[in-house]
Amino acid sequence: MTRITPSVTRALRILELFLNDQNPLAVPTISERLGLPRTTTHELVNTLIDSGYLRRDSRQTNKVFLGPSVFELGNVYASKLDLIAEGLRIAKEIVAECDETVQMAILDGTDAVFVAKVECSKMVRLVSGVGSRVPAHCTAVGKMLLSSLPELGINDLYNEQDSLEKMTENSITSLSQLKHELAAIRKRGLSYDDCESNTDVRCVSAPIYNHTGKMAAAMSISVPISRMSLSRQDELSVIIRKGAEEVSKNLGCNL
């Protein structure tokens, strides 16, 4: 009979708590949800922090959430997922059509994490790469992903703190402003980044849905401002919407 190590199982159960709750959790909460003694929970959490699978919330040091080691493992696994494979395939087709850089991102807390990217052939390109992350409220992909959450979910995600990080002069800097923008995104089904994360770049993004109808990722076309006129933005909006819909259909979503 295969022998199971209880401490490893308990550590994995702690990590699995974040599958359905992306908010930071306190040790007493973890202990209660898993039915573990607090001393045992503290030891397991400290071990997971030491190995990078958990990290402390900088704003609430008594709480923890997933650390970079989880992302590193997930990034290796993600290379084999249909989402990444389909996203890359369609992204290449989009780049072949418009010759602009295409990226795909997922939401991790309040950050957009880029999981796929296809460069254009032109001289001016983006410096962001796969695995990099930026505040979601400052990007087209991030705002699109945030738009999938209800207003109460947005409040919880940002702990109802109205002030938001500023990357450029065009960045959204308040939670109330972000909620207004997300409402507009839900209506039009597209998200725009008007030099909000990079003073030289504008982006347009569309949602990607999985087989359950849940928004799984967002795809964007990023263009230097020197190449992004209003007519070009309209043209790229049609292209990215069509591409994202194609990925969604290939993932089993009935649009």
Structural class: alpha+beta
For the secondary structure, the number of strands is 9
> What topology, given as strand order, has the largest sheet?
6-5-4-9-8-7
N-to-C span: 47 Å
SSE order, as H and E? HEHHEEHHEEEHHHEEEH
Largest sheet: 6 strands, antiparallel
Q: What is the gyration radius calculated from CA atoms?
A: 20 Å
- Topology-level CATH name of the largest domain: Beta-Lactamase
What's the topology here?
Blueprint: H1 6-16, E1 25-26, H2 27-34, H3 38-50, E2 54-56, E3 63-66, H4 68-78, H5 82-98, E4 101-108, E5 111-118, E6 133-135, H6 140-146, H7 151-157, H8 175-188, E7 191-194, E8 201-209, E9 215-224, H9 230-250
Antiparallel strand pairs: 1-3, 2-3, 4-5, 4-9, 5-6, 7-8, 8-9
Helix pairs in contact: 2-3, 5-9
Account of the 3D structure:
- This protein is of the alpha+beta class and 255 residues long.
- It has two domains: 6-69, Winged helix-like DNA-binding domain superfamily/Winged helix DNA-binding domain (Arc Repressor Mutant, subunit A, Orthogonal Bundle), CATH 1.10.10.10; 79-250, Beta-Lactamase.
- It is 43% helix and 20% strand.
- The protein is built from nine helices and nine strands.
- It has a six-stranded antiparallel sheet with strand order 6-5-4-9-8-7. A three-stranded antiparallel sheet has the order 1-3-2.
- Helix 2 (27-34) crosses helix 3 and helix 5 (82-98) packs antiparallel against helix 9 (230-250).
- The longest helix is centred in the last third of the chain and has 21 residues, at 230-250.
- The N and C termini lie far apart (47 Å).
- The model has no long low-confidence stretch (mean pLDDT 88).
